[in-house]
Design a protein that fits this description.
The chain has 83 residues and is of the alpha+beta class. The chain has one domain. Helix content is 16%, strand content 33%. Strands 1-2-3 form a 3-stranded antiparallel β-sheet, with no helix packed on it.
Length: 83
Amino acid sequence: MLYSIESLEEYILVSQHKPRMETYLRQRDGTWSFAYFDGMATIARVRSLGIELALADIYTGVTFPPDGETAAEKTKVKDNPEL
C-alpha cells in the first residue's frame, strides 16, 4: 500500500468528477492529516512542498456537469432506479 512507503510525505487525489482535491500529509508520529479543497475558486495547499495551487488552474479546459452527477451515475440510476 502507498501509505507504507516511508519516503512518501504527502498523497494527493484530484477528482475527475468535480473540482476537488484531497491531500493526506504524513505526521511525525506516522498518522496522516487529511485536508480537502472544493470549488473552482479554491486555492489548494500542498503542504509537503510549501506551495499553493488554484483549482481553476488544475482544471483548465475541464467542464463538469452542472449538477455534479457523472455520466456513469446517471446510467446506473437509469438502469436500476433502486440503486
